[in-house]
Structure formats: C-alpha cells, structure tokens
Amino acid sequence: MSSFVCLKDFEDNAFKVIENTALDYYRSGASEQFTLNLNRKAFNRIRIRPRCLHDVSQLDASCYLFGKHLQWPVGIAPTAMQKLAHPNGEAGNAKAAGEMGSVFILSTLATMSIEEVAQAAPNTCKWFQLYVYKNRSLTEELVRRAEKANFKAIVLTVDAPIFGQRWADIRNNFSLPSHLRLANFATKSSQSDGVIAESGGSGINKYVTSQFDASLTWKDVEWLVKLTYLPVIVKGVLTAEDAIMAQEFGCAGIIVSNHGARQLDHVPAAIEALPEVVKAVGDKLTVMLDGGIRQGSDIFKALALGAKMVFIGRPALWGLACGGETGVRDLLTVLKKDFVDTLALSGCRTLKDIKRSMIVHELEYAKL
C-alpha cells in the first residue's frame, strides 16, 4: 500500500480481495443506481475559487464537534457487517479513526458488539448508529449500552423504514455467512442470526422488514431525545422541511445523507441537498454530510457549503480490506494529506478560512 496515492487505489485493490457477494453488498446502490453515480458527479460540478498570496506556512485542519477536539473534519460513517471485508472488522476501523483523530460511528448491524469496540478502541471518539426495533425495550437497551461504553452521541437513521431495492443483493440471495453474526444481540436470537435469504431474495431486506419499526415518526425522535443524555443526531435528512422538524424535536445535529444511495433512487446527491439544510437550520444545529467523499477537494466543497464535518463509508471498507486497521490508517493518511494540500492551495490556513464564496457551480462559468 506504500504505492497507493489516492482512494481509488485502495478501492481497486479491495475489489480484488473481498468475496464477490460481500463486495456487491458493499458497493451496490438502489435500483438502477442513478443516485449512486450522482453522489460523485455532483461534486465534480462544483468549482473551487482559490485565493492567492495568503500565508499558508502553518496549517491547522482541526475542529471541535460536540465539545470534542478532532484533528480534522472527517469521520467514518456507520456501515454494517464490517467483518465481511476483513477479520479486524469494526475494531480495525475504530482504532484507525482514533489514531487519526477522527470520529467512528458504529452500526447497530455490526459484526462486533458495542462493548468489543469500546474495549478495542478506548481512546477513539465513538458514536453509535441506532435503528429502532419493533421491540422498544431492545432499542432502549442498545442506547443504555452505548452510554455505559462511553460513546459520545446517538446517530438515529431516519431514512430506513424499510430497505431499498438493491438488485445485486436480490440476485445474490445475500445472507450473512454462518461464521458471522450481528454481535449487538444475544446469540441465537432472531436479531443476531436473522440475515438469511431462506427463500431467495435479499436476506438483509427480509431482516429489516421483520425487525425494524416502520411506524417511526418524529414523536419517536422526541422519545429518544428524552431517553438519553447523549446528543441525538439524525442521519438521512435531505430536505429543509425535515431539518426544521429535527430542530423542533430536540436533535443536536443532522447528517445530510442518502444512505450511500442505497434507499430511494433518484433522490438528490447529499452535496446537492446540503445547502437547503444549512440554510434552514445551520445556525441552530450541527449539520454534517456523508456520501460521495473521495478526495480532499470534496471535503473542502462540503465545508464551504456549510457542513461542519463529513463522513466516509465505503472508502473505509476498502481500506479495511487492504490490511485491516493498517489499511484504514493508510487510507485516512492519504485523504488527510489531500485535504491539507487543498487547504493550502486554496489559500486557507484553518477551516474558518473556508468561505462560501470560494466555490461555485459549473453553470456559473457557462454564462461567460
């Protein structure tokens, strides 16, 4: 990996080493994957307007988020079943995030438990991503375990009453391999061993339909906010209307996200939806973004549009596949250098120097 100079190098190598069914699960989007491709294309339509002759001899990419000092504004998004990529699993990603001064978000559907990840990465800033189960006592227990394990926030996914149609998973009859389990639940429970495509189709879709509470409303978000002393962040918001609802019901933050383009196809790219969310609540809630981040300029563009932090999902899996914790650390190192270089070449010494006026949509230049 010493010769890897960009995230695409890690991705190309990961595609060679991850088993095909697992690879299809990780890389696929919903339906015809229009939004999956849009997540990248939308970034490419934004131009940076760099400023010259600014002193960038001393750069500082650090930031504060919910009272925590971080080395840079990039974290690892929640992705399910990470042991499909490497035996280090979620612990590998969590430890690498800590070493790089980043946030790690643990998925409810993890192949390592809350307690295992907490023990493996005690010094990492960890958040817990929550799905609300039909069994509310089970959901509350997950929150209490996250609190006890010193996780710093609850990230409630709000765009998944059901899972989207991912054609590759249906064709592959995707199931969790027999040597793995959803480790946040008791052994041999329906919640831990239920990702099985017994009669064809996608095992993960079958699991979600049987376990997740599709009746969830904003009143349930209010219930969660009152349940825990941790800040509640809603993930999956794409509109100003829902951003305002998140504010009204007591959330501390929003992650603008389309779930890696894995839910409803033909929704906006996350970066396209970011401006309206920031305009609606950006001075009241902490607005963040995930989806499509692949290089330092992407991070810069998201921050210029008002995000306080961004998260990477699939790239962290590609790094994990390329050597476990070491692979993720190497990937984050490459991405951080790219971001710091972008800061310098744009004339910014700190994150506060990044201004909205420093980016413009390509159509502005088409008017010339």
UniProtKB/TrEMBL annotation:
Active site: residue positions: 259 (proton acceptor)
GO function terms (MF aspect): (S)-2-hydroxy-acid oxidase activity; FMN binding
Pfam families: FMN_dh
Keyword vocabulary terms for this entry: Flavoprotein, FMN, Oxidoreductase
Top-level enzyme category: oxidoreductase
Entry coiled-coil feature ranges: none
A GO cellular component annotation in the UniProt record: peroxisomal matrix
Domain FMN hydroxy acid dehydrogenase positions: 1-364
Enzymatic reactions: 2-hydroxyoctanoate + O2 = 2-oxooctanoate + H2O2; a (2S)-2-hydroxycarboxylate + O2 = a 2-oxocarboxylate + H2O2
Cofactor(s) the protein needs: FMN
Residues reported in the UniProt entry to bind FMN: 78-80, 107, 129, 157, 235, 257, 290-294, 313-314
Enzyme Commission number(s) of this protein: 1.1.3.15
Keyword Oxidoreductase: yes
InterPro entries named in the record: Aldolase_TIM, Alpha-hydoxy_acid_DH_FMN, FMN-dep_DH, FMN_HAD, FMN_hydac_DH_AS
Domain of life from the UniProt record: Eukaryota
Positions that bind glyoxylate: 25, 131, 166, 259, 262
Any GO BP annotation: fatty acid alpha-oxidation
Family the UniProt entry places it in: Belongs to the FMN-dependent alpha-hydroxy acid dehydrogenase family.
Name of the featured protein: (S)-2-hydroxy-acid oxidase
